[in-house]
Fold these 2 entries.
Entry 1:
Amino acid sequence: MSYNPAPNILKDCIILITGAGDGIGRAVSIACARHGATVILLGRTTTKLEAVFDEIIDSGFPEPGIVPMDLATAGLEEISALAEVIDSRYGLLDGLLHNASILGERVPFDHYGIDQWQQVMQVNLNAVFLLTRILLPLLQRSDDSRLLFTSSGVGTTPRAYWGAYSVSKYATEGLAKLLADELANTSSVRVNIINPGATRTAMRAEAYPAEDPTTLKTPEDLLPLYLYLLGPDSQLDHGKTFTSDWLD
Ligand code: NDP
């Protein structure tokens, strides 16, 4: 589908994006700002978030917020404090994109590190639950908000050796579908899943070190789909999974 978002399609929207300092999250953050959103940039490496902040400001887009947060360790207190800051500064959220993830190791199951398993599940699933649980009331204050979860091909078809990453994406899909069902008739929050597919980022290079990255689509190639799913044009979409095929 060919989709050309209107220049100001996200004007005055407040959108929180996790993993905003690099890869897909970085590109989507800048694109949302370009289309008028105030983006709250959440990530674990402050220098990367600052670089995205500078790029947005230098381009003359709305001033973003920066939230340095390590989702491997962030707990109820830290995330509740974030919710309070968003509440006092913006009053609501129009979008939440769960994008940050880690790959973990790809080894036979009986070699999978116990700590590694817990860390991947913490970042990719438990932090997603906690952020959603604490920030949902702010999303519900918006007349038309978006809650977007990020999955992967290994979140619907298991792949040998992918361990906790694959299981965390299955669980992410489950969480998204459960919430979509729960919120369908009781809320204006639209819940969907995106599987970006093979994309030229650091994570992909870690997973497939021998691959020629120039054969892959870039995060920028995905932007129409992300802008659609985070903006008002996806108002009728709920409980669905989108892949980059949508762009064909
Ligand atoms: P990248 O590894 O390029 O970027 C991930 C981002 O998440 C980085 O900014 C990283 O921060 C941040 N992050 C990682 N761990 C934490 C943490 N503990 N706390 C806060 N932030 C953290 O990944 P991609 O852009 O490739 O992936 C984005 C999403 O798309 C992921 O959910 C991934 O599973 C999914 N996906 C990607 C595919 C691909 O081919 N690229 C294919 C299918 C799904 P920092 O930069 O500081 O490390």
Entry 2:
Amino acid sequence: MVDQHTHLQAADLEEEVQADHPLRIQDLTLRDGHQSLFATRGRTEDLAPIAEEMDKVGFFAMEVWGGATFDSMHRFLGEDPWERIRTLKKHATRTPFSMLLRGQNLVGYRNYPDDVARAFTERCCVNGIDVFRVFDALNDFRNFQTVVEVIKEQDKHFQGSICYSLTEERMGGEVYNLQYYLDKAKELEDMGADTICIKDMAGIIAPYDAYRLVKSLKETVKPPIHLHSHFTSGMGDLAMLKAIEAGVDIIDVCLSPWAYRTSHPAVEPLVVSLRGTNRDPGFDLRRLTKCAEHFKEITPKYRHLLDDRITIIDANVLLHQTPGGMISNLVNQLRQMDALDKLEQVFEELPRVRRELGQVPLVTPTSQIVGIQTVNNVLFDSEEERYKMITAQVKDLCYGLYGETPAPIDPEVRKKALQDYPRGSEPCSCRPADILEPELDQARKETEGLAKDIDDVLIYALYPTTGKKFLRWKHGFEEMPEEVKPRTLEDVKREQELVEKAKRGELVEKPVKEAPGKGQNLRTFNVFVDEEYFKVEVENTDSRPLISSVTPMGGQAQQPQAQAQPQQQPQPQQQPQQPEPAPSEPKQEKSAAPASGAGIPVEAPMPGMIIRYEVQEGDSVNEGDVLLILEAMKMENSITAPSAGTVREVRFKEGDNVQKSDVLAVVG
Ligand code: CO
């Protein structure tokens, strides 16, 4: 018999009755909504104007920050991430603000030392975050310790999260079974969690699993239970409804314009579905509609970022138990490497790599770690040798730097990964942050004269390369590049008109005859029209956009577009930002291979960004020495010397974007 507090009952009376267990609802539109649909590109100027109205709805909290926002804002939007919290807070004073905090990874992709974690969490509290949804990609809660201490000291709400994962079609099996989640929930209760969240980042929780899980959690632990899921697989609303029937206390939704697809169930239909039941949240539908109108108005600015697949749901997620964002990352990565035909091999290799790496949940950053290693294996391994190109992050994972994996790591893989690993070949089993040296003082020193306050220092401490770039823009040391500046709705309209003209053939002749050189401010758009796909490059000159090229790329319209991952936006072919100082002898073009006999060119195996060179021109190196670190898809890859010799040329510098096959260095 289901008790009346958890069972959905229609009220007998015609007049409104007060629900005895009203469902609490958190809105995600301002964070996970645009992170899921528009690569986290939502701008403060578009979000702030509606915050005041949303504040009146009565949400449990509004998620406004964390996750990828910090990275995306400083890197792609030229916005100070801290400023967003403060600005929104001016408009929404009543509803608590929540953020997604990746435990000791904070809002980055690696574990930061305790001094950085403490300072960062404190600044989140001071700047206006009230509710902290803390998770760890391995569900290793030792990675919560430091940030939770600060959250508690600051008297804020600690929401402990468990990453929901599966290794088979339904909940069960050796690792992710019911008992696993109940044990994790008890651990969180003991840590003082104010609420407990089941974080289903992939949208793979099936409705009846959600029911069983929530019901058991309610019987096992005291803190309110919160369910976070995504619509990706199409089960989102069904899972929510079953969770509501099972007595879930809080759920996550978005306003309808930014709901569904890889985002979340929409709030409006749920509110109406629950009306008059004892779970009625009591929201005003008119107010929600008014809020939704705003998002409809601004969405044209972001439409080009939307995954334009024909189907709203991604059945591949059901098939592979893999987050949708991860699948589109894999597709994009393969496409960039001209290896899209290897997709099936990647799907075959993926569960194997995941198992060998300890059956980790697939969430940032482990989804990237597993995904990229899988692609590396498919592309670079030979019959005789697996794991030929191991990323730095896989080595760290094998060492224990991310924490304890849910299942043991394959000993062979671990041994290979830790060969020549700088911290030693014996993995560590301690709390990962215990072996990290403090970094904050060093970050302070390195930003002297550039950082104005601790918030600036933290941007650099979390993201040294792009953070420094951003601080230079922010404080006027460097002009902000055109592509990070906001677009107006007028810009969007003009661009659309130009695209229309181009499609009619009216613009094609002109640029062919007198095409100007492509400049730094070029933006590239993928335009999909029925079965056709155009690559359109637009550049602003004299404040009027000029179409630099329109390339029909027929027959690719069905393929999914870049989504949710900043790195995979189609990028214009980029020349190194600054020309080299005038060389004393004639030099070849940057990317051209050198004449034979002039050394071995070391090419980029994939497109990415140069994190740093470990060598300088003139250095002598041994075969296998690390020449440089190339960041691709947020993973760091060591590029090593193909043979012993002298570094003859270093062709790029820190922060440069490179394309596949660009020559990065010449050794000989
Ligand atoms: Co999410």
